[in-house]
Write a structure and sequence with these properties.
This protein has 2 domains: about 50 residues; about 130 residues, Glutaredoxin (3-Layer(aba) Sandwich), CATH 3.40.30.10. Helices cover about 55% and strands about 15% of the residues. Helix 4 crosses helix 6 and helix 5 packs parallel to helix 8. The protein is elongated. The termini are far apart. This is Thioredoxin family protein. It holds the Pfam family Thioredoxin_9.
């Protein structure tokens, strides 16, 4: 008899739970939806706070001190003699604007390589960090028509003579030298 009463009690409790869920189905679904939205907003806010990227002109020192992947790639990269020679040959003939994102894997690879190739030379390089929409506060990316990162714009005498977009054909140093060389031949 006690087993029978126990079964009836369990059955009544189950029925009460089902009835409660049926009665409050909409309220429970609404609360679950509100909780889900709140969690998504909270997670998004925390993610954005962690992923604050520098935007605008940035120095080599700031880049390497504040972005471990860039620093690691810089210190690990060993330029070839050809790269050092190419940069030395054009150091006083060209300037380079580098548009990149600290969030961009291609930038993490290529920008440190260029900076390391310049280690012993005086080639003037401007580093312009972009946001995820590939823009910066000064509007330099928009003025330069930047669509991909990184983009290396090479200037001679203040005039653009070429671009390297995302990755070089040989190395950045050698490709920059080749752009300058073609430009100087065309001027002759």
């Amino acid at each position: 008899m006690s087993k029978n009463n126990s079964d009836k009690s369990t059955s009544l409790n189950t029925n009460k739970k089902v009835t409660f869920l049926q009665k409050h189905k909409r309220t429970i679904m609404f609360l679950a939806f509100v909780f889900w939205i709140g969690f998504a907003v909270l997670y998004s806010t925390q993610s954005n706070a962690k992923e604050s990227y520098p935007i605008g002109e940035i120095s080599k020192q700031q880049l390497l001190e504040n972005h471990d992947d860039f620093a690691s790639n810089y210190y690990d990269y060993q330029p070839s003699e050809e790269e050092y020679t190419a940069i030395a040959a054009i150091a006083d003939k060209v300037t380079v604007d580098v548009f990149f994102g600290t969030w961009c894997h291609d930038s993490e690879r290529e920008v440190p390589r260029l900076l390391k190739s310049l280690k012993n030379n005086q080639l003037k390089v401007s580093l312009i960090a972009l946001d995820g929409k590939k823009s910066d506060p000064a509007g330099l990316a928009q003025q330069s028509g930047i669509k991909y990162t990184p983009t290396f714009i090479i200037y001679a005498g203040g005039v653009e003579i070429g671009r390297i977009i995302e990755r070089p054909k040989q190395s950045l140093a050698e490709d920059i030298w080749l752009i300058w060389h073609k430009h100087s031949l065309a001027k002759s």
